[in-house]
Design a protein that fits this description.
Helix content: 25-40%
Strand content: 25-35%
Distance between the termini: 31 Å
Structural class: alpha+beta
Largest sheet: 3 strands, antiparallel
Number of helices: 1
Amino acid sequence: MATLVGWHVELEFTEEGHRTSAAALVRLGDGSEIKARGYALRHPSDPEQLRVGEEIAGARALMDIASQMLQKAHSEIDEATGRTSYPLGG
């Protein structure tokens, strides 16, 4: 099976106190980039587990990326067809 295109995804994390931030970037095959941020807050009584904060913040950033990608795809469909398209489950 031949690979038609590849996407490059970058995630970067920072932690300040009880807050973990994730910055996500995806570079699409058409040269466009989509960026998003996600956050996680640790309750002061919870043990420090950096990995968990990264997973939550990263997942939230990637969920935002997914939403933006759906919007982009549907805008392209609408432009090509002259009709309004609707994402399933969106």
